[in-house]
Write a structure and sequence with these properties.
Oligomer: heterodimer
Strand content of chain B: under 5%
Number of strands of chain A: 8
Largest interface: A-B, 52 and 57 residues
Largest sheet of chain B: none
Number of helices of chain A: 8
Order of helices and strands of chain A: HHHHHHHEEEEEEEEH
Distance between the termini of chain B: 69 Å
Order of helices and strands of chain B: HHHHHHHHHH
Largest sheet of chain A: 4 strands, antiparallel
Helix content of chain A: 40-55%
Strand content of chain A: 15-25%
Number of strands of chain B: 0
Structural class of chain B: mainly alpha
């Protein structure tokens, strides 16, 4: 075995993955070649130091507690989602939502106020450590991007997003936050979903054009006058009314049952 | 909503199996998805997916490998969604750990005192790993963090052992090149490479 041969086997030798015969050949070469022996010893130290360094990354203290709670709260997640669905139905009804009909501004605002009240009440039940008030900007890690999206959407300093316990909404799609923001002087509720790393911000009862939704992952227009947002990975599609901004359906493979529960049916 | 006794037991069983490996899963996700928040999202999703399929797990078999399948798939999906893991071709096999490594003062200085160097490197080690090809990251981390054998890695990633060896050697070689570059740029080595 030459020194060049040894270099080819070095990676597997460090992992003790060479067969018996090759290991013996490597050993014999190391016995005869002090330079290679010194190199192997140094590489072994480096590899060990890299492994130790990689394994020293801190794990956030509460992460596994949150994970355990999420497993255990799958029922509660559905309950919250059902509550949101009920609230959105209330909004849709109050907003006079129907395909092709523009909701009356006053009714829409009334519906928004109803949902805001529901969300604030829910906020007070939120997990310890999550601010119950909706009056402070919370740069919660998972919602930093959502806040950026909200900022670009409304261009309004009054954006508020509170991190909510993740709802169990199924494969890839989950509710990660909610809050309110102001559009045209009216406070409107916002639900923040995340689907496979994409942020989808859904606004209820929005008196603005849907083209102002930069947070939607992909916006398509279909022949029925509805616009759709779709996660490019799971293909969960949200059909959003362009007039009210209300999400009215979720379709496609990987559709999350919990998400569907949060959506108002026309 | 009350949780039944069966469900509680199931959760407890799952968490008990998860306990010895969970922090290494966390670090794996963190090294593969650099943003901590997204890494945590991915790991939670993977954990939830695994929990839902816990009924399929055969007690007495390798829970660690079973769990890693969910994490690997979820990480892949997250990175693809973020356009982070493009479809890649296959490099020609290379097993020489130092194939691309310029020999010189910098790397020799790293080898002379790797522990001190890695303390000096700080977060650059993670950055260097993140620049590897996704499959090289997977193989390197599965080996270095979890100590999977080549056979186990080959099974997890559905590739031949020889391919695992190639990716691992290439990933290590690239990593060493990055570390040598950093040693020069950061002043760990006085006077630059020979």
């Amino acid at each position: 075995m030459t020194c060049a041969d040894l270099r080819r086997y070095l990676s597997a030798f460090l992992d003790s993955e060479l067969d018996g015969g090759t290991t013996a050949e490597v050993g014999a070469h190391l016995d005869a070649c002090p330079d290679c022996a010194e190199r192997v010893e140094a590489e072994t130290r480096l590899e060990r130091a890299i492994c130790e360094r990689l394994g020293a990354e801190p794990v956030r203290d509460c992460f596994w507690d949150e994970c355990r709670e999420r497993l255990g709260r799958r029922g509660l997640g559905r309950r919250w989602v059902a509550l949101a669905w009920a609230a959105s139905v209330l909004v849709a009804v109050a907003g006079g939502f129907a395909l092709g009909h523009a909701p009356a501004a006053g009714a829409a605002q009334s519906g928004a106020r109803e949902l805001i009240a529901v969300l604030r009440e829910r906020g007070r039940e939120a997990q310890h450590g999550i601010p119950a008030a909706l009056h402070e900007y919370q740069a919660v890690e998972s919602s930093a991007r959502a806040q950026d999206l909200l900022g670009r959407f409304v261009g309004d300093a009054n954006r508020r997003l509170v991190h909510l316990d993740p709802g169990a909404t199924g494969h890839g799609t989950r509710l990660v936050g909610y809050g309110t923001t102001f559009v045209g002087g009216e406070e409107v509720p916002v639900l923040h979903y995340r689907c496979c790393g994409q942020d989808l911000c859904v606004f209820f009862v929005m008196p603005v054009a849907l083209s102002h939704f930069p947070g939607v992952a992909r916006v398509l227009a279909d022949g029925r006058g509805l616009t759709c947002a779709a996660c490019p990975t799971t293909n969960v599609a949200l059909r959003v009314c362009p007039k009210s901004g209300t999400v009215i359906a979720a379709v496609g493979s990987g559709c999350a049952p919990g998400l569907a529960g949060a959506i108002a049916e026309p | 909503m009350a949780i039944g006794a069966d469900t509680r037991r199931r959760q407890a069983d799952f968490m008990e199996l998860l306990a010895p490996i969970r922090d290494r899963l966390y670090r794996f996700a963190l090294h593969r998805i650099r943003d901590r928040s997204r890494a945590e999202d991915a790991l939670q999703d993977a954990t939830l997916s695994a929990y839902r399929r816990f009924g399929d797990f055969e007690r007495g078999t390798d829970f660690r490998a079973w769990m890693y399948r969910f994490v690997l798939n979820t990480v892949l999906n997250y990175n693809r969604a973020a356009r982070r893991d493009p479809t890649v071709g296959v490099d020609p096999p290379a097993l020489d750990l130092h194939e691309n490594l310029r020999t010189g003062t910098a790397y020799e200085a790293v080898l002379a005192d790797p522990e001190r160097f890695l303390q000096h490197v700080g977060d650059e080690l993670r950055a260097a790993i993140y620049e590897l090809r996704p499959v090289e990251q997977d193989v390197l981390l599965l080996r270095s963090l979890e100590g999977f054998t080549y056979r186990e890695i080959a099974d997890l990633l559905a590739m031949p052992i020889g391919t695992v060896m190639s990716h691992l050697a290439r990933g290590r070689a690239k990593l060493r090149e990055k570390l040598a570059e950093y040693a020069e740029e950061s002043g760990f080595v006085r006077g630059g490479a020979a």
